[in-house]
Amino acid sequence: MTSTPIASKIIAKATRVSIDPAHIEYTSDRQRNAVEALINEFTVHPQMLQDIKANFMEGMKKGLKKDGETMAMVTSYVMGRLDGSEVGSYLALDVGGTNLRVVAVHLTGGGEITTRQTKYRIDEKLKVGEAKALFDFMAVCVDSFLDEHQIVVRGDTQFELGFTFSFPVLQTSINRGTLISWTKGFNASGMVGKDPVAYLQDAFNRRHIPVRVAALVNDTVGTLLAHAYNHPDTCMGVILGTGCNGAYVEKIENIAKWKGDATAKEMIINMEFGAFDKERAILPLTMFDNKMDRKSVNPNKQILEKMIAGMYLGEITRNVLLNLIDRRLLFEGCISPDLNQMWTFETAYMSTIEADGSATLHATRKILESTLNFSSTTMNDRQIVKLIVELVGKRAARLSAAAIAGVLEHTGSWKEKAAIGIDGSLFEYYPSFDTDIMDGLEEVFGPTVRQNVSIGLAQDGSGVGAALCALLAAKHSG
Ligand code: ADP
Ligand code: MG
């Protein structure tokens, strides 16, 4: 049994060791010009950050007015607030993109939470196969989790489960909704327009697994709730993992499209902000982004997500490297067969390369030569690879800052004490992602924002948050 305090932690991760382009010994003027052109293309200048933020706020307003807008601004049906005194035991099933997690959450009150969890890998075939098979797999994971941890129910009672299903869903109640579209490499057949809760509940029932799906939760909403359990001033939950998205607390009077309970004062909105700028009106897309987008399972969709999230950053970097190689400006034009394959340059490699401060760029060399099988690399190759990684990573963090700034300005939360909980491996492990975001926020709001707004890792937020949501659902119906 592990005890998982959700409190924002000091993130013990490496910081970026920047590379100064002026210190690169270029092999030719052509190489220097190519690198300078990349710096130009990938840099999000302060004015651009402001413009994106302004455009993002317009997108938020549109989505609050009516359904079907680029940013869906989904009403989550989560209206209650938490104060940390809640007690009980709940299950959570977290389907985020890369892994599937089952979590047993025990709330002991006083902001204390203990969890037991098991991760399961989702096979690529399941992601794009029959929807029924995918949901059967989820039910089987929950069943084996209960077995493994010897968790049993007494009599006819059922476990209440919070289902974190982190795809765009048009929610119709706390445990009902319809899938708007698949994202993050999923494309299981026959699901769009259907209710994922019904599919999951059906899979449980067919196997006589005593579980009731009490709440359908987006991971952003879960993250917000989990962070709020011990940071009551939490105003936003953000995911920076396989995909990216955010949720925030909105006043009911600002949600023009809301036709439900008029007595509620506020509601958590799942923004689905990864879809921002489908129109390609404002984001500084490069040919490397476009190449990746075309080859993705959802071309032309989730444009902001594809510039920010963990699933895509490595692939964008790979595209830039290939372009330089093909122009004989890197690795003397020699390619490694590994790098020729799509998705082989993992975003996790970028974290290692960003943190590499060794004189010979030893860690970078290891990735290129041992992992990606380049026969040899020069210092110049490694410096340029490092610089490109930094360009792609920093752009992602600054675009995240633009989105977060849009929310903070829309709600006015930057003027008061406010906490933002962020979950996801990209945020957790990528060097200096947090400081890049803060720097971006300071550019927009000035130094006050540093005193007022805290950004913290809400580790396991999406799992624990789902359990908290199941609890809120029970509170409401009880
Ligand atoms: P999910 O989004 O499925 O809940 P995670 O939050 O673990 O899962 O995010 C997985 C994503 O994080 C993957 O796309 C992966 O590329 C990225 N990732 C994993 N490890 C690292 C790392 N060390 N540095 C940067 N990104 C990482
Ligand atoms: Mg997750």
UniProtKB/TrEMBL annotation:
What's an example GO BP annotation here?
glycolytic process
Say which domain of life the source belongs to: Eukaryota
Keywords (alphabetical) are:
ATP-binding, Glycolysis, Kinase, Nucleotide-binding, Transferase
Q: Which GO terms describe its cellular component?
A: cytosol; mitochondrion
Q: In which pathway does it act?
A: Carbohydrate degradation; glycolysis; D-glyceraldehyde 3-phosphate and glycerone phosphate from D-glucose: step 1/4
For this protein, what is the EC number? 2.7.1.-
Ranges for domain Hexokinase C-terminal come to 236-471
Q: Ranges for the Hexokinase N-terminal domain?
A: 35-229
Which Gene3D superfamilies has this protein been placed in? 3.30.420.40, 3.40.367.20
Top EC class of this enzyme = transferase
Q: Which InterPro entries match?
A: ATPase_NBD, Hexokinase, Hexokinase_BS, Hexokinase_C, Hexokinase_N
The GO terms describing molecular function are: ATP binding; D-glucose binding; fructokinase activity; glucokinase activity
Alphabetical list of Pfam families matching this protein: Hexokinase_1, Hexokinase_2
Report whether Disulfide bond shows up as a keyword of the record.
no
**Entry's PANTHER family?**
GLUCOKINASE-1-RELATED, HEXOKINASE
Q: Which protein family is it in?
A: Belongs to the hexokinase family.
- Please identify the protein, giving its name as recorded: Phosphotransferase
